[in-house]
Amino acid sequence: MDFEREKPYNDLPELPPKSEIETKVILKKTIKANTALAKLVGSARQLPNQSMLINSISLQEAKVSSEIENVVTTNDELYQAYASEKKVKDPNTKEVLHYQDALWYGYQFVKDKDVITTNLLIDLMNIIKETNVGIRKTSGTRIKNPLTDEIIYSPPESEVILFQKTKNLENYINIDDDGIDPLIKMTVIHYQFEAIHPFHDGNGRTGRILNIIYLIYKDLLPIPILYLSKYILDNKKEYYKNIREITEQGKWEQWILYMLDAVELTSKYTQDKIDNILSLMIETKKFIRNEAPQIYSKELLEILFRHPYCKRKFLVQEGIVKEKTAGTYLKKLEKIGLLKSVKIGTEKLYINTKLFDVLIQ
To answer: Per DSSP, what are the bridge partners of residue 343?
Structure first.
């Protein structure tokens, strides 16, 4: 393959790939990944309110996906910022929260429109980066090794070429009758988006959101709960090595197997997390009924598991109690050892410590 790292890769092949992407070993791995993903979806459906996962697990996805780009915040800062009305000053925490906003936006768009477009990807990037720009127009974008400053990849350049490449990607994403398993297609789409590198910044995070919303688009996920960024962060060297081997040698198999492994192992990891949340909900339900039966309700239990931090406003918004009574309820739950209060600015938040521990494991 004619490829030079320092020269813009304007000859990036368009999709579908000419190489075989459904080898016997890939198809065997695809069955295992699909099975694990289906079991995860089954576990999620046991939750009384699946939206709680969007607020809790998706924040972890946002945190780890941002860490891959060296945007680092702590779990405490992140969850407190999400629950508190105090203005977020830390720029890293802001970026992680914007990532979750983008994830939610992409989810809603796909559910409403049943399509994935280039304009959607532009919107996702703009939400993440708090900008209002489009596909890059200027030349000179280079991907460098941060340790050696060596150029390792030069993505395509020129507005016309980038438009052609992204339009081809959009068409490939939305073709439904090519007979390729959606999980395999997701791995191809992810590589191609990374190789096009259509934006000045935010490409990595936009590409990882694209993974999730594509599976939602294909009805393999009901809500954005697949936590792929953790696997990529834990296996970062292999991730970039496999991408380079497609670019430089046209080797697709190892990359596809890597991403299918990510789906399988992440599905099992997230399923365990959901199972632990379900067990903790049952345990908490019994505990409140024994220790504070006068305040127990199904709605209160669900509020306590929607997010690790709770406050009076959340109880009022759900119509459980009036504001003064909400404070009494939360103080009672703290007194019996279920919650722990913390002051953030002028607000008092209450942390469900056991749920917090499950989420960050």
So the answer is: 348
User: Is residue 8 a part of any domain in this protein?
Assistant: no
In this model, does residue 53 exceed pLDDT 80? no
Residues 6+ apart with CB under 8 A from 334: 340, 341, 350
Whole-angstrom Cα distance, residue 198 to residue 173? 16
131 within 8 A of 122, measured Cβ to Cβ = no
Tally of structural domains, the chain: 2
- 57 neighbors 222 (Cβ within 8 angstroms): no
How far is residue 183's CA from residue 215's CA, in Å, rounded to a whole number?
Answer: 8
State the pLDDT confidence band at 30, using cuts at 50, 70 and 90.
very high
User: Is 321 in a helix, a strand, or coil?
Assistant: coil
In a domain, 135, yes or no: yes
Range of the domain at 307: 292-360
| Same-domain pairing of 80 and 176 | yes
Alpha-carbon distance of 269 to 232, in angstroms, equals 14
pLDDT score, position 170: 98
171: tokens are: 């068409």
pLDDT at res. 355:
92
